[in-house]
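Here is this case:
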Amino acid sequence: MTGEYRRWRAVGLLAAALLMVLGAGQTWHVVAQQAGVTNYVYQTQVTALELTLENATARITPSPDGAVTVNQIDHWTLSRPRITRELAGTVLKIAMHCPGVVPIGAMGCAANFDIRVPPTAAVRVKGSSTDTSISGLSGDLNLSATSGSFQLADVSGRLTAQVTSGSVTGSGIASAEASARVTSGSADLTFSAAPHLLTMAAASGSVRAELPRGTGYRLAVAIGSGGRDIDSALENPSSTSTITASADSGSVTLKRSGG
């Protein structure tokens, strides 16, 4: 048996073994994928919601009667997501992570949350591989994710959002103070009311804001390598309202609604 033959035989055996492992993995996924549904109702006063999530989606909307409801769907193949809930005073804390010391331990592990809170509740989210949507709330929002996205609609509390890799998007924003920062990705906010203080920044990516007509701002715009599209009608050096927007590598767009 020649050396070349042995090498090609080894390559063939390795490829066959890999195909068997992948095929078995797909079969196991189909056979063993599981799901569980859980619902909770909190009738006591809740003023804030804190989420710490991994491999999850969350939808947060206002409750019509002031009660807090949590509809939760778990997905898993080998290990079920570990989820804890704690009511600390008037703060509801929910934490979710996927167990397993090796990646295969978390295979197929995920969770979906549909949560209703009082319209004035503050929300804090800390996520990893997490997509979160929030609408109709007037409480402060403090949002961060290493990877994922935040989709916002019709919110009016103080807004702070930071994403390492992903996006922050919003429509109908009426926050007097708003900050959206991304390391790699995009931030795009459309305001229904003029903000007093707006900060948007991207290290690698784009930032965009659409603002109501009739209000001018002190503008501070910084671009590294990229483009800028600034509506000159937004600039008023004597204004008490400020917009700071920057992109190290990417673009900055500031425009008026309907413009």
User: Anything to note?
Assistant: The first helix runs from residue 3 to 32. Residues 15-19, 24-31 have pLDDT under 50 and may be disordered.
